[in-house]
Every structure is written in structure tokens, then in C-alpha cells.
Specification:
0% strand, rod-shaped
Length: 76
């Protein structure tokens, strides 16, 4: 069954275009989700940095603990 579908798609340009379009959409959606997750993680780390700065924790300690650069910690 899968082999027949593959043969049909490989011989029909319109079907190949639909398949490529669907794959691009799926890849874009996965990429968007990963980007959103990374942004959320960064926002959470910056929030943590602000809280730790308010407690008087040294910036270098915050940077190492949260995986942020010193500049990110200083401007948080």
C-alpha cells in the first residue's frame, strides 16, 4: 500500500508539490514551537535573574546558575 502511494506521488508533479508543501508546513510548525519554547525559557531565566539580583546575589553566580550572559543578567 505505501509503495503504491509512493509510486503515485513520485510520478505526479502535483502530488509531489502537495507532499513538499505539507512537509514544509510541518517543519515550520515544529520550528515555531521550538522557538516559542526557547523564548519562554529565556523569559523565565531573566525573571529568575531579576529575583536573584533583588536578593543581592552576585551577577556572576546568577549568570552561571541560569546560563545567561553577564550582560543579560545586568540588564534583567
Amino acid at each position: 500500500m505505501a509503495g503504491a502511494l509512493l509510486m503515485e506521488i513520485s510520478q505526479d508533479e502535483h502530488q509531489r508539490a502537495k507532499y513538499r508543501s505539507r512537509r514544509m508546513f510541518e517543519t515550520d510548525m515544529s520550528s515555531n514551537i521550538l522557538t516559542a519554547e526557547e523564548r519562554g525559557e529565556n523569559r523565565k531565566a531573566l525573571e529568575g535573574a531579576r529575583n536573584l539580583k533583588a536578593e543581592g546575589i552576585p551577577h556572576i553566580v546568577i549568570s552561571e546558575a541560569l546560563g545567561l550572559t553577564l550582560t543579560e543578567v545586568e540588564t534583567a
